Structures are given as C-alpha cells and as structure tokens.
C-alpha cells in the first residue's frame, strides 16, 4: 500500500444500516464485556445501560449470573427499582415476579378463579457468562429472539481464569469507535503518554510489526516488545508479547516471560452513543508483581487518564462533524476495525458470510 494513501474514516454517526447495526453504530448479536465479576455479589442485582439499552444484571446465591431487560412488561417501570429475593426479581409497582430466565412466576393481584398463564409473560433476557474476570453479555439484535448466540464468548489465555491482580475503569465521553481506534492507535504514544517513567518524545523511532488475522479481529504476532518501554524492563528476562484485537472492542496483551504470564485485558463497552466504558484488567502469575500493586496502580490509572483527556479534547473538534483521515500504516489497525465491523454487520443484517478482511502483513510506523 502506498504510504500516501488516505482513507476517510467512517463516521460513528453514519454506520452501515441493518438490524445488527442500527443508527447508533453499535454491533449487535455479539458479546460485550459488561462489568468486572466482582461488581456483582451473590444475591444482588445491578442495573446498567449498555448500547443505550437498560439491562438488569443479577447473581443468584449459587453464583450464577443473568441479565434481563430492565423494564417491567406490565407497565414499564424499571425492574431494578424492585427487589431481588429468593432468586427472583420482584417489580416494585404491582409485585409481579420474574425468574432469571425471564418467565413471569407470579401476579399477586390474581384471584384464585382468575385463570391466567402467567408463565407466558416474559421479560427479554440476554445470554451471559462469567469468566476471565468479567461478566460478558450477548447483546441481541432482536430482543424477542431466544436463539443461541451466533458466536461464542471470547476465549482468553488461561492466566485470566484467576482473579485479576488489578482493575481500572474509566468513562470516556465519546462514541465507542473513537475509544477503540484511540486505544489501538500506535502513533499517539510519544505525544500523549509522555512521562519520565514511560517514554519521552525523543525516544520516537521506526517500528515494524507483523500482523495477521485472528478470531473476529487481528493480532500483532508474538514478538519481543520494543526496548523503550520501562515497564517491560521491570519484568526482567526476555518477554515476548502478542496483542490481539477482537470485535466489538476487546484488546488482549499476552506477555510471556519464561514460565510466567502477564495478561492485560482492555474491554471497551458502549454505554450510549456519547459514552463509553473502558475496563482495564491485568492478570499475572509473577508473584512479586502483587507486591508492586500499590505502586503500579496509580501509573496505570494515569496512563488511561491520558487517553481519556485526549478524547475529551477531541470532542471539541468532532462537535463540528469534520471529515477525518486514516493514514498508512499508523492507522491501518483502525481501518481493519471498521472493515471487520462492516463485515460482521453485513453478516448479521444481510446474511453475507463473515470473512475476516485482514491478511498477514507487516505494518511500519514511527512512534
Ligand atoms: S409495572 Fe411491574 S408489576 Fe406492574
Ligand atoms: Fe493510549
């Protein structure tokens, strides 16, 4: 590809149309990271807006997790205003009760002779799984459907089966597309993440990385990370790292240092069209890393905060709906993201079989 080729970035406000990509530019019929597992204790429920939809999450006393539309099918009050008792959700208005699978189990106002098939009343539910440190939810295109998910939830390295050593979260005031391409953008590092402990602008140099297609996304193939990252020096040995991106907004950095593993998971989840939640979790097997946690946590937070600050400033320009550019090769990952999204949306809305548009290649840039 010639280095001068530019492509206009698809705008978040003009996504491909179809049931799985509504006007909001969010992919549907796909798994999203909803929250860290620890947010939802047994016997509790928690309401969240995801992709502009009100979702009520709950966890039974046995640890099992469920999610349902947070709207009572009777007269529309949020079910989260009610209570969770004996494994069922009770609406605060007229006391209708719902099981985790969405079936209505009780309508208190019915008299003994008022026959009504209450179990035929249902709240829409969302498939959920609790693994890799988080609760993942399958956001359906058609809420009335009860079909099995068309893709499995993400499979992450085994180290993520333990509790995350560190969890950071932040809300970015932007559309999910800008959060995703901002986080995968390799060229902003020397300008946005300038800190004595990470790197300086002077450390900018040419990089060449091998990329290839991976499950619903692409991977920066396993390599030795660049030596200008102080964080890697701390780990000792010769680490190798592989970074995967998976639709709709998951970045997994898998670092191997001898027999040890460190895995960084960044999940990007749309709350609504102007709000995006970023959750960053780090899992490790290196025992002494836990001791460093109090020192590392503020740095990780500062790093993510730098990404957010730049997005906040970007909003001032985006408010005027400018034409944007994606250049080679620094923005090629962003181009892939939009192509992958388009291919997935076309599969779900028009039945065009999903084919990963990414081919193995080397990308070069200076950063
Ligand atoms: S509105 Fe929920 S029971 Fe009536
Ligand atoms: Fe960044």
UniProtKB/TrEMBL annotation:
InterPro entries according to UniProt: ARHD_Rieske_2Fe_2S, Cholesterol_7-desaturase, Rieske_2Fe-2S, Rieske_2Fe-2S_sf, VanA_C_cat
Residue ranges annotated for the Rieske domain, each copy included: 32-137
Region annotation (Disordered) ranges: 1-22
Domain of life of the native organism: Bacteria
A single MF term (Gene Ontology): iron ion binding
Keywords: 2Fe-2S, Iron, Iron-sulfur, Metal-binding, Oxidoreductase
Keyword Iron set for record: yes
Protein's recorded name: (2Fe-2S) ferredoxin
UniProt source species: Thalassobaculum fulvum
